[in-house]
Design a protein that fits this description.
The protein has 322 residues and is α+β, with helices and mostly antiparallel strands. Helix content is 30%, strand content 28%.
């Protein structure tokens, strides 16, 4: 009833045709990809990552998932059914088969649909042609997929909101300038990280206990070695946070790995000033817009909203025991 799909196969071509057929639908905001891009995304081997895609025998539905070696959870990346084959149980059938095959091969205890899926689906910002975000942190709650996964036994465990703002004309708000002036008077400044004159960045990242930030910030080469600049708040030569790295993607999107402030410097408006500086610096190097996401209950949303960012899509992170 199904075929496991591999690169450079007829099945891979069928998946690509189905992807293009559905691209642009309200329920399918994902970017149209060429065949090589889609095969790399869903099928190509990567160190420490196992991928699996299954195609229904009629070629009108497929399901795709992934697994990070050593973990006890896998990920559902996509279940897609052609418009003329929906409401016939094909999607549910493919999801059940994929769950069973992944559990058998990867010895998982749970399957998640979340930001941590190593297969990143690029989606297009509604109402803003040419603007995109490089990952979908869960299931679009406005789509039929949300009800589909609920019916299949998946439960919400987190709600994420995606934010968007054009920054080609970004100017630091007057209220942020006032906070920055107070911080400057108290010895704080926002600067590009320089290991020769600043200390404490490793301790600061360790305090935040975020392995992804440790990789993206501490693993970033210095600009002198070909790396990208990182903005940091500094007091008395000590790093008390980060934002960046500064970079512009091919679409014009200002890159955003994250923003954080050391607990010792919170409650003073440092994060708002730091994020505004990030927007201004990204505009200065050619970014035309920015996107990001954060948890619905995360106080960090106030930082983004103060800079004029607005929610464009909401997502549910979901999981199921298997």
């Amino acid at each position: 009833m199904y075929t496991e799909v591999f690169q450079k196969s007829q099945s891979a071509c069928q998946i690509h045709n189905l992807w293009l057929e559905c691209a642009g639908e309200n329920d399918f905001p994902y970017k149209a990809l060429n065949s090589d891009e889609l095969e790399h995304l869903l099928l190509a081997a990567e160190p420490g990552i196992r991928k699996m895609s299954l195609l229904h025998e009629n070629g009108r539905a497929f399901a795709s998932g992934s697994y990070i070696e050593g973990e006890e959870r896998g990920f559902i990346t996509m279940v897609l059914t052609a418009a003329d084959a929906r409401r016939r149980g094909l999607g549910s059938e493919m999801l059940c088969v994929l769950e069973a095959e992944m559990k058998k091969r990867f010895r998982m205890k749970e399957i998640h649909i979340s930001y941590f899926d190593p297969v990143n689906l690029v989606w297009e910002i509604p109402g803003h042609p040419g603007c995109e975000h490089p990952n979908s942190p869960g299931v679009d709650i406005s789509s039929s997929a949300y009800g589909f996964f609920h019916a299949a036994g998946y439960q919400d465990y987190s709600r994420q909101n995606s934010y968007f703002r054009r920054i080609g004309d970004y100017e630091v708000p007057a209220a942020i300038k006032e906070i920055e002036a107070r911080l400057n008077a108290d010895g704080y400044s926002i600067r590009v990280y320089d290991p020769d004159t600043m200390e404490g960045i490793t301790d600061m990242i360790d305090h935040l206990e975020n392995s992804m930030w440790r990789k993206s910030i501490l693993g970033e080469p210095l600009p002198a070695d070909g790396g990208r600049p990182i903005l940091v708040p500094v007091k008395n030569g000590r790093v008390l946070g980060f934002a960046g790295p500064l970079d512009v993607e091919a679409s014009g999107r200002g890159f955003f790995s994250g923003i954080a402030v050391d607990p010792s410097a919170r409650g003073r408006g440092v994060a708002k000033v730091l994020f505004s500086a990030l927007c201004a610096n990204l505009r200065a190097i050619g970014a035309s817009y920015m996107t990001l996401f954060t948890g619905e209950d995360n106080p960090a949303r106030r930082i983004y909203e103060a800079a004029g960012f607005a929610i464009v899509k909401s997502w549910a992170e979901m999981k199921k025991e298997v």
